[in-house]
Amino acid sequence: MSEAPVTAWKTRLPSDPEALQELLDQAHRASEMLKALSHETRLLILCLLSEGEKSVSELEDTLSMSQAAVSQQLARLRFDRLVKTRREGRSIFYSIADEEVAALIGALYDIFCRKVREQPGD
């Protein structure tokens, strides 16, 4: 039986207690972000927002979902600081919150969304 390939990014845990605590804090932060991403509709919303800012009504139309259902998922994304809002008159526009979130969603978009979104007819 062959051995599994070793990843190039092998690391050792730091022996310094402060550095280890910082690593644990980052692991907790990553875990919380991944929990927020663990819902299909929230992932789909973030996939759409990775293409640019969208209004609630644009998201409703694209997702064929009610305003209440879309708003519920957007509220969770706001709570978890994954999206930010901008108001223009009576409309609210959503976008990806920051560069870290954009990088993560960009990677997921490239793997799971790009081919589908770039198909003819879209």
TrEMBL record:
Residues 20-116 form the HTH arsR-type domain. SMART domains: HTH_ARSR. It comes from the Bacteria. It holds the Pfam family HTH_5. Keywords: DNA-binding, Transcription, Transcription regulation. InterPro entries: ArsR-like_HTH, HTH_ArsR_DNA-bd_dom, Metal_resp_trans_reg, WH-like_DNA-bd_sf, WH_DNA-bd_sf. GO terms for molecular function: DNA binding; DNA-binding transcription factor activity. The keyword Nucleotide-binding does not apply. This is Transcriptional regulator.
